[in-house]
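Pipeline run #58 for the internal structure catalog. This entry was flagged by the ingest filter as a single-chain record with no existing model, so it goes straight to prediction. Upstream metadata was stripped on purpose; only the residue string is passed forward. Reviewer on rotation: M.T. Logging verbosity set to normal.
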Amino acid sequence: MMPLEACIECADLDSVRRSVTNALEGGADRVELCSNLQADGLTPDAQSIRLARSIFAQRKGVLAMIRPRAGDFEYSDNELNIMAQQIAMAADAGADGIVLGALRDRQIDVPGLVRLVAEADHYNLAVTFHRAFDEVRHRDAALELLVSKNIQSVLTCGAPLSSGLSALHSVETINQTIRQARDRIEVVIGGGLDCDNISPLLCQLRQAGSKVSLHSYSGLLQGGLTATHLVRRMVGIINQHFTSV
């Protein structure tokens, strides 16, 4: 089956507790914790990560966004220092992995990435390169670079953030990335996924021999919280797809 990752808004501890619990009860495999998702997600606080860790207990699947500010993904040395400190904080709070990205002139910032990955490796944290990947000039070259740096996963919608397109509208680009990735790096598909468009997306994916997972935020929300019934419904659609093909 294809894993499902629920993106969680860390607005306050009560909403974190309810959303993470609902995601887990609904059948989500992982959660990505973010603050300020109106700004496309910033680093959550340690209390939110610790709370999610306690809900997941010994089960792996708690990921934390590492992003110190809104705006572009080009970071100064001082901001990279802050990100390194946030990685250490996330590890201390119990995260299993981190989600980050760093660019320079629409290419991956190699020195910055190497520095942050070294910090993550020190704490044995898995690394996902987030949708900054969708902003690069040359996706193929960027993907090979991520593979060479032992990044575990890359999150993509197949289209730039500014386009407003969902993953369903960019399936061919995503399929190209999946074909190139093979089993060397997991391709996490995110961007406007909900219970209405997940089935047509799955029908168009070509994932043979590749590691692929799905990422959803707004499509799992009800009343500002991740909803158990929506997670369960999406997991059911995913499972039905794979049992029927």
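catalog note: The first helix runs from residue 13 to 26.
catalog note: The domain at 4-244 is CATH 3.20.20.380 (TIM Barrel).
status: ready for reviewer M.T.
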